[in-house]
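Fold sample X.
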Amino acid sequence: MRAEDRIAARLLEALEGLDLTSADGRAGIGTLLSEIERACPGAILQQAARSPLHGASQTVR
């Protein structure tokens, strides 16, 4: 298994139990995103630009 695949699998495991409808879940995802951004600046925006959902959210606003 490639390193990228192992990292993705670990991230998915961490996110499985996250309840984004709760304040704790939203705080948790915020912390995770902050840590990803700190470790790899620009990674989140780069991925969001590739996502078809990102474009869809821009048209709704």
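Fold sample Y, listed below.
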Amino acid sequence: MIEVLKKYAVPGLCPLTVLILFFCFRTIPSAKLWEGYTVLAVPVEADMSSVEKALDEEGVREYICLENQKREEFPTFAPVILLDDADDYSKKKLSYFFDRDRKSTIFYIPDSFKNEAAKACRVMKEKHQISPVLDTTSRFPWITSFVCILLALSFLAFSSNREIYFLGAFFSIAFIASNPFYINGAAVCIGLYGYFLLQKVWRRKGFVKYLLKNPFAIVFVTVPVLLTFFVSFKSGVFYILALAGTFASLFITSRIEDDYESSLRFCPVPIRPARYMGVTSCRTMRTMMFSSMAIFALIIFFFVSVPFSSAGAKSSSSSDGVLLLPGPVEYTGTSPDFPGIDDYVIWKWNKTTESYRSIRDTDISYPKEGDTVSIPRYRRTENGIQSFTEIAFTFDKAFREGVISGIDTLGYPAIEKLWKNQRRKFSVSYASQAGEHLSTFSLVILILSMFVPLGMTVYYILGWKKN
């Protein structure tokens, strides 16, 4: 009994552990726009006092909204105010508090209050007939799992050793069900063909050595691993766990088959070793196109379900009823409609130094590195009163860091705190609050993954003609 446990139960812990990890740490893609903050959008015609009352009653003690923005205090002894309080920076900040069509007002709620915010939304609906939207609302993207399952069934129909292919595909399907991102779906579509090749040579003499050297097997195992790491480190690790679960299951299956064959008086053995079977043929090449077709379907569904947005460009999807909210995108420079940290630093410089500058100084809006503001001073010396110039302010790294660190000391929930909380430089554009966002990077990765089976087909054709 102990020997049986060592032989089957101990290796069986690996696939079981993998499935438990997939279930416990599954991820549902959500288009959370801002790191550390949950976005709440309510119709502009809604009673804001009712919205704020619902938030307060449910325990949301802090949030950023248009009503609680304040002016920063600056020295008031300047004889002339050079900059109008209603400058471009202050006016552009208003864009953060409305959707693209100006039909919704936006609140930014720290993630520490996201559960309370969800409760407040229910109160708004039930008591005040207000229809709020939270960007944490997420729906499971069944389409990625559906496409992968459909592809797996297609390969299963063409498999000669269906039990082995099922074991190989099972953990890949479990992986995509727990991490249903589109790039992960493309990785699984490629990996499923690798298991289709495996079942063709399973248990033939030298099949492991043959697969380790076969370029098709290598590509259709390693490329999916690389693709999943493009999504996240967690996705990459989970895909490796899926491979581990698959190989452990196949190892157990091999032992079971060995025990069964040893009990037979006569056991048929495949005559042709794996190296003479070949995993590629004209038929398998046609079957491989299923992977490209499945990835192409993922790209189409991605375009249909996710509005494409890029910095500085406005999406036309809002006319379809999609709520487009200000959100960070890949950094391409200053956003024309949305100020950011860099704009705040420049605005702070102008406001801080305006009392010390000449009213004839017109080149003040965009300071350059190393710009200074000097103050004439006088001191008593042995030779009488002498004048000298003191540098009061220098626009340099120290000034910028001081301004950014000072955001935390602002005595109100300023929109600048939202910007500082992001851990990377970003531009801002309007984006959808539902589903996984389609970035240029992910689109390129999906297209390249679609060409992996096509590229291997070209490789096969060139090798066939050469031979």
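Sample Y note: The two ends are 54 Å apart (CA to CA).
Also: Residues 81-86, 307-320 have pLDDT under 50 and may be disordered.
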